[in-house]
Amino acid sequence: MSGLLQDRSARLGTARYEIIQDPTDRFIVWDEKAGCPALLGGEIISCDTFFGAQRVVERLSATRTGLIDTEAAVLQAANAPPHRCNDRAGNPARNARLGGSRLSISIARSRADFEAAEGLCTKLGRWDAAIAPNYGLTPLDVLTAFHSECRASLSGKFTSADAKFLIAWQGEAPAGSLAFDAFDETCAELHRFYVDNRFRGMGIGRKLMQAVLAEIARGSRRRVLIHTAPYMTHAIAVYEAFGFRPCARFRDTPEHIRHTDLFMGRSI
Question: Whole-model pTM?
Fold first, then answer.
């Protein structure tokens, strides 16, 4: 194992790692303390299955007790066949339990709501940063340009009739988000569309989009804009299903980021 990865892994246990699913349905191990994907030999660690990623986290964390000292051990864990886990979604019993909880969508209003919103935005930022190197960007590029929110900034931005942050709740757990604000006098813009890995495949993204478009329709703006990226394929599928189509650029971005810009819009 490279010295850099071994040193990072030795500091903390499993709480330092998170598993993120990328647009190609591979699972990436995110290093919480380093603020970037975990690396092995300079390459991002990714796995075909959620189970494989869990095994990698266990192996990386075991460096604390000196149980791992070779790259081969981590690679073996990443490629290990699943045991009592029959698909990419993880534990079927856990999925059934999550699916049995009641889904609700509400507008963020309280401090607790915006703390949940901050958590969802943080997960979205980590996911985006994990994918960025595949498109010629660094994690710092996307985190700095697009993911600098905190609870205070979110509550300051999304607490008016023209700007709201909607959260999908699966029982008591924040499962997804979608926000909007005023772009100009005639257009609204969508932001922070995200569904937590644990709750994907349950139609939450579509329900969030329905709720947000209904909120926007209550106001005077009759066009909705989105600034996204071509690699956000799951989100784009929802946008297209709701009638969004590519449109002219409506925001300037740094030159080194522009190749990942996609602008979409629709009328309501």
Answer: 0.69
Instruction: Say how far apart CA 128 and CA 131 lie, in whole Å.
Output: 5
**Tokens 């997804």 sit on residue:** 176
Q: Which amino acid is at 120?
A: L
Would you say residue 244 has pLDDT above 90? yes
Q: Give me the pLDDT at residue 95, please.
A: 36
What average pLDDT does the segment 89-107 reach?
55
Domains assigned to the chain: 3-78 (no CATH), 101-267 (3.40.630.30)
Which helix (H) or strand (E) is 206 found in, with range? helix 204-217
**Backbone torsions φ then ψ of 179, nearest 5 degrees:** -125, 165
Query: Which of 85, 105, 83 minimizes the C-alpha distance to 199?
Result: 105
Compute how many other C-beta atoms are within 10 angstroms of the C-beta atom of residue 191. 20
Band the pLDDT of 163: cuts 50, 70, 90.
very high
Burial letters 13-23, b for 16+ CB under 10 A, else e = eeebbbbbbbb
- For tokens 């995110």, what's the residue? 30
Is pLDDT at 220 greater than 60 in this prediction? yes
Assess whether pLDDT exceeds 90 at residue 235.
Answer: yes
Q: Which helix (H) or strand (E) holds 159?
A: strand 159-160
Contacts of the segment 208-215: beta carbons below 8 A, 24+ positions apart: 208/105, 208/166, 208/168, 208/176, 208/177, 208/178, 209/178, 209/238, 209/239, 209/242, 211/105, 211/166, 211/178, 212/164, 212/166, 212/178, 212/179, 212/180, 213/242, 213/268, 215/107, 215/164, 215/166, 215/180
Residue 86, both tokens: 């029959």
200 backbone dihedrals φ, ψ, rounded to 5°: -75, 155
Least confident of 51-55, 68-72, 219-223: 68-72
More confident residue, 234 or 7: 234
